[in-house]
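Supplementary Note 2. Why include the ligand at all?

Several targets in our set were suspected to adopt different conformations when bound, so apo predictions alone were not considered sufficient. For every target with a known small-molecule partner we therefore ran a joint prediction. The input for flavin mononucleotide is given below.
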Amino acid sequence: MNLLAVVSSLRKGKSTDKLVDKAIEGALSKNPDINVKKIYLSDYKIGYCKNCLTCRDSKTAEPYAICTIRDDMDILVKDIHDSDLLIWGTPIHMGYIPSILMTFIERFVWLFAKPEGKHLTLTNCPTPRSNKKRKSITIITNGIVPPIYRMFCDEATHIIKETVKETLNGDNLGSLYAGAIEKRGVECYLNKAYKLGMKLV
Ligand SMILES: Cc1cc2nc3c(=O)[nH]c(=O)nc-3n(C[C@H](O)[C@H](O)[C@H](O)COP(=O)(O)O)c2cc1C
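The joint prediction is reproduced in token form.
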């Protein structure tokens, strides 16, 4: 079983990274044989999506379409494809996900999804190309907003959850909102991250 942990904080060893490590620890406590790969998006060269729509319009029967851009997404797309379990660790930037994560998501959405989904009266929505099921958890950190005000400062969980569901057949098993870490520090959230990781397995 492959666990892919994606860290979009540019600060290695800080809050998001620490909580992701705890969640990995929790997952491994349930199954030590899990094959873990943790990636920092900042270590990879990820160009912007050019909106050529080659991937979206691909009729491939493969689990994912091929992007026209050749960069480190070639490695990351393979990692996503191989994953069974996903951990998303991200800071909040201006209430949303940081641009590095958005760039990453924009690049893989239509690789793993085809435009055959339907929502209410909307057609051509993303739906997974592959039947492979995945399980996913999300860890969000922010500097000043405490969890009680999450509703005002958390577009991140929603976008990750929807993307995982509509592109990767992912079941989102839970999320941790580690708020106000500038004041509270990260230690008070470590146990929650560990338990969330356990839930993944
Ligand atoms: C450009 C930018 C925007 C930010 N926006 C918010 C915000 O809207 N709300 C908030 O509480 N913290 C905000 N922060 C603080 C980060 O969320 C916080 O530093 C981060 O969670 C720390 O994670 P890390 O220790 O893994 O780097 C922002 C930080 C940056 C750099």
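The chain has one domain: 2-200. Residues 9, 11, 14-17, 91-95, 141-145, 153, 181 surround flavin mononucleotide (CB under 6 Å). Comparable summaries for the other entries are listed in the accompanying table.
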